[in-house]
Amino acid sequence: MNKQHLPVRDITVLVNYAGEQYKLLTFTNEYRSLMMLIYDNIFTDGFGECLGMGKCGTCLVEIIKMQTEPTAYGRNEEVNLLKAGQSKETIRLACQLLIDEKMDGLEVKILT
Ligand code: FES
Prior knowledge:
There is one protein chain. This protein has two helices and five strands. By secondary structure, it is of the alpha+beta class. The protein has one domain (10-110): Roll (Ubiquitin-like (UB roll)). It has a five-stranded mixed β-sheet. The N and C termini lie far apart (49 Å). The site of FE2/S2 (inorganic) cluster (FES) has 14 residues, from loops.
C-alpha cells in the first residue's frame, strides 16, 4: 500500500517577551498549539499553567502580525478572555491557537 505523506512546512514565529525577541522555528505537526511551542522554547515564569486546557488564562498573547485571520475562538476561549478583562480581537489564549503553515511569519507579544 502506498502511503501519502503530507508535506512538512517550516514555520517561523517571532515572540516578544520581557524586552527580548525570540525567533522560534518549528514545522507542521511538531507542536499542537502556540502555547506549547512557547512553553517548550522560552522560560516564561507562570506561562501556560493549565497546559492548554483553556482554563488558567496565563497564556495571553497579543497578535502583532499574522498572514491570515487567526483561527476561530477555541472552546470557552472567548468567555475566559472576557473574564480576564480582554476584549480586543488581537488578544488570544496561545493554547487555543493551533500551529499550522498559516502561522508562518506570526509575531506575538506575551502579556502574562
Ligand atoms: S494554558 Fe491555561 S488557558 Fe492557556
